[in-house]
Input
Amino acid sequence: MLVSKDLDMFRYFVRRVLQGVLTFFGATFIVYALMFANQDDPLQALAGERPLPENVRQALTERYHLDDPFILQYGHYMRGLLTGDFGISLTNRPISEMMQQAWPVTIRLAVFAIIISALVAVTAGIVSGIRRGGIFDTTTLIITLVLLSLPIVVLAPLAQLLFGVQLHWFPATAGAEPGFYQLILPAVVLSCLVIATQIRVTRASVAENLRSDYVRTARAKGLANRRVIGVHVLRNSLIPVVTLIGVDLGNLMAGAIVTEGVFNIPGVGFNLFRGIRTEDGPLVVGFVSILVIVFLVVNLVVDLLYAVLDPRIRYE
Amino acid sequence: MTDIKAEIDVLPGLDSSARLLEVEGLHVEFRTQVGIARAINGVDLHLDPGETLAILGESGCGKSVTAQAIMGILDTPPGFVTGGAIRYRGVDLLKLPEEQRRRVRANHVAMIFQDALSALNPVFPVGWQIAELFRVHRGMSRQDARKRSIELLDLVKIPAARQRINDYPHQFSGGMRQRVMIAMALALDPKVLIADEPTTALDVTVQAQIMNLLAELRRERNMGLILITHDMGVVADVADRISVMYAGKVVEEAPVLDIYARPAHPYTKALLESIPRLDLKGQQLNVIKGLPPNLTRIPAGCPFHPRCAYARDVCRADPSPPQYEVDPARTARCHFWTEVVGDEPAVK
Output
C-alpha cells in the first residue's frame, strides 16, 4: 500500500518535472518573441538622444546577432542559457552578475512579505471565522475590501508618502543594500497585494470546518475548545490556505516590479522594469526565465505539500 | 490505570446509588432568524446500567438534539437548553462549570455518530484520534496511548489492528469506520454510551454486525446504552425499553415487547403499521399522512392531532395530553390511550 503510493508519487513527480521543462521552453520562447516584436531600435534606445556612430552600431549589431532572423537569435540565446551563460546586457554588464545582486534582494522582500501576510491572514482569518458577524469580523471585512480595491501602483506611493515622507516611521526608499528595517515598509505594501484574499480564504475555510461533523466528535471527546480549534479545525482549514500562499508567491513577484520601482530597491522587478523600458532583450528574457523556473518549482512544491497536508489526495 | 481514572472521575456530588442517567423536563430551543424553534419540550428519560434504551422518532422529532443536550455539545447559539435537568449519578450536568462538564464527556458519557466518515477527522490517522483521548484525559505518553489504541481496535474486532493504526479514516470501509468510532467512544470506559443512528449509513449485513458488537460491549461493560434511531426494525432485537418521541416530547415509553404487541399511542401504532412486512406483500403500505409539525409553530393541544385518526376536539386544544400511566412500567401522552391499546394492533 505504502510502496505503491510512493511509486505513484514518484511517477507524478517525474511527469510534473517533464511538463515543467516544456513550460519553461514555451514561456521563454514567448517572452523572447515578445521582446523581439517590441524591439524598435534597441541600440538607439541604449544611446538615448545622442546619435550612434555607424562603426559602434555595426559592432554592437554583430555582438548581439541583431541582423540574424528571429529563430536564429532565439537559438543563440537558448544555447547560452542552457550552458549557464545569460549573456551580456545592452548596458554591457554580464547578466549573471546583475542576477547575483538582484535575486537575493527580491527573495528577501518576497519571503518577508509572505511571512507578514501569512501570519496576519491566518490569525485574522481564524478569529473572524470563529466569530462571524462580530466587530472584528466586520472591521476586517471592510479593510480587506479597501485593500482589494486599491491597486499596488496607488498603494505603494501612498504608503511611501504617508509613512516614509510625512511620518518618518520608515525610510522612504530602501537603496542599494537594503537591510531588514529598510524592507519593512515595502514588504508590508507588497503583502497587502495578497493578504485580503488570504484572510477571506482562511475565514471561509475555518467557518466551513467549524460546521463539520468531526468538530462535534472532537467536542464529544471532551477536548477543550482551544484544542478543538487549534488542532482539529486548524489542520483542516490550512489546506486551501497553503495552496493559496504558494500561488501568491507568483503574485508577489509581479507586485515586486512596482514596489521595487517605487521604493528604489535594486531587485528583480527593478531590473525587469528598466530592461523593458530600454528594450534590453537579453536582460528581460534572462530574468523572466529564472522567474518561470521559480514559479514552476513553487507550484510543484505546493502540489506535493498538498499530499502531505491532505492524506486523501493521491497522485496518479 | 483504574487509579488514575478514579482520581480524575471525581465529580462533586457524585452518588453511586443515584440513577445512572435521568433527564427531567428538558427544554431546548433554537433561536433562528425565522423564529424560535422549540426542539425539545419537556423530555423525561432514565437509564440504568446494562440497559438499552431506544429513542425512536422521525427526523426532526428532537432525538438527536436530546442526545446533544445530554453530551453538552449543542451548537450554542442557536441552540439553548432553557429548562430541566440532566442528572448523571445525581449530579446535574447542566449546573456543572464548563471545565468539569468537559471531563464528563468521554470519561462518563460518550457518543457515536451516524456517519463515521464525516465524524472522524479526515487528516489524522485513526490511531492518533483514539490516542488523543488518552493523551489529553490521562496524560499518557504517545507510546502508551498508541498501545492502548491498538488494544481498542482489537476490542472492536478490526483485523490487523497494529498495521491499520496509521491508516486514515478514508482507507476504512463503512463498517470498519463505525468500529473505529465505537473504539474511540469506549476508550475511557464511559458508563453511558449514546449511539446516534449508528447503523443508518451502513449495509444491512454490516448493520447487524455493528448492533451485535454494541450489544456485546454493553453487556461486558455493564454500560447504559441509548440507541437513537428511526428504524423500528433495528430496535426490536436489542432494546430493553423504547421512548417514542414526537415534536420534542416523549409520547410513549414502554418495555420493548409491550410496545410491539400493544402500542398505547396512535403515533407509535402508525409507526408500527408503516413497517413493510413480508406477510402483507402486495397490499398498500400504511404510511403516516402529513408531515411532522414545524417546530416554530407547534399546533395547540396534542402536536400529533393533525395526523391522528383518533383526534377529537379535546386533542386540538391546550393543554396537551399529560403522561398517562398505562401500567407501572409504561406511559403514554394520549387522552384516548385505552382506546388505542384496546384496538387490534398493526395488522388489518
Observations:
- Chain A has twelve helices and no strands.
- The mean pLDDT of chain A is 84.
- Residues 112 and 187 of chain A are 6 Å apart (CA to CA).
